[in-house]
Input
Amino acid sequence: MSAASASSPWYKSGVQFSCQSGCTRCCGGEPGYVWVTELEIAQIAAFMKLPPDEFERLHVREVYRGQKSLRERKNGDCVLLGDGGCGVYPVRPQQCRDYPFWPEVLKSWAAWEKEKQRCPGIGVGEKHEAPKLIELLKRQADA
Ligand code: SF4
Ligand code: SF4
Output
């Protein structure tokens, strides 16, 4: 049974998380994927005032058939990461909005604790209640 469907997940009392000003660690540093839908590609391209096909040529790679990710630089940083943080923050992909409430991070207390090594916002600040987390996980599973 997954954490999202369990009647009493480990995070039943909620978790604390607040993104830390000036931090960009989840936007790079190691190889990974930032999945983007066609709608997100169109929204980000419009925000950057680029034709969608040009934006895609420059910044998107097809990983599997029809599954696209933002490109990353040689150092692992997302191609859209700028000096001041995400260069497309108002229209950043849903995956970025959902972090750190990803299935692989919320699957266990140990995974949540381990992710603290990457994200200094985990375990501090705003309280996020279990119903919201379950809803977030369900939406990601249904996507
Ligand atoms: S690693 Fe955590 S604190 Fe840093 S930018 Fe990402 S979400 Fe925010
Ligand atoms: S799109 Fe923005 S928030 Fe998402 S990984 Fe790239 S720089 Fe970070």
Summary: Residues 26-82 form one domain. Helices lie at 38-47, 52-59, 94-98, 103-106, 109-115, 130-142. Confidence is low (pLDDT under 50) at residues 1-5. DSSP finds six helices and seven strands in the chain.
